[in-house]
Amino acid sequence: MARACGRLVLLLLLTATALLAPAPRLTPTATSGPAAPAPDPTVPAIGRAWPVGLRPPVLRGWEPPPTPYDRGHRGVDLSAPAGAPVRAVAAGRVSFAGRVAGRGVVSVELTGTGNPPLRTTYEPVRAVVKKGDEVEAGEAVGTVEATGSHCTATCVHWGLRRGETYLDPLSLLPPQLLGRGPSRLLPVLGVPLP
């Protein structure tokens, strides 16, 4: 009985320690990509789908330049095979679908996001929509083109702007889509109940 009580006390202490410990920070890996920065409070988490796949690896994260004309990375690069569907992250109206500098580009102004509205951009994409089309979250706006990417592997560059200001597109996604859902306790096997 004393041994079972000791195990129970140990189990409770370990559980309390795990629950009260700060969450570990994600570190970049070859498969998961860079750790995402904290969401931008000026961007509502209205995204309902990733642009490609279910939770694609982030090949390169958002690196805002110190000034509008400095070097940086004004979006995120998501791993995606050529021909994969590219979906609207949230509902909106297509503001551009065409080619820029030889690359297929689709831009969507997001519904209900203020004035000026938030605008997402996906490239290189072969558009299946045209300017003025209304799209729903998760609706295909095109497919990934095999060429035209600045990545070493096939990818989609996903950008976000409000007016002339670039923002982190990952801020559009709620924690559940980013893999940061609530903690869940799992049963402990082999410990007798009191």
UniProtKB/TrEMBL annotation:
<dbReference type="InterPro" id="IPR016047">
    <property type="entry name" value="M23ase_b-sheet_dom"/>
</dbReference>
<dbReference type="InterPro" id="IPR011055">
    <property type="entry name" value="Dup_hybrid_motif"/>
</dbReference>
<feature type="signal peptide">
    <location>
        <begin position="1"/>
        <end position="21"/>
    </location>
</feature>
<keyword id="KW-0732">Signal</keyword>
<dbReference type="Pfam" id="PF01551">
    <property type="entry name" value="Peptidase_M23"/>
</dbReference>
<dbReference type="InterPro" id="IPR050570">
    <property type="entry name" value="Cell_wall_metabolism_enzyme"/>
</dbReference>
<feature type="domain" description="M23ase beta-sheet core">
    <location>
        <begin position="72"/>
        <end position="169"/>
    </location>
</feature>
<protein>
    <recommendedName>
        <fullName>M23ase beta-sheet core domain-containing protein</fullName>
    </recommendedName>
</protein>
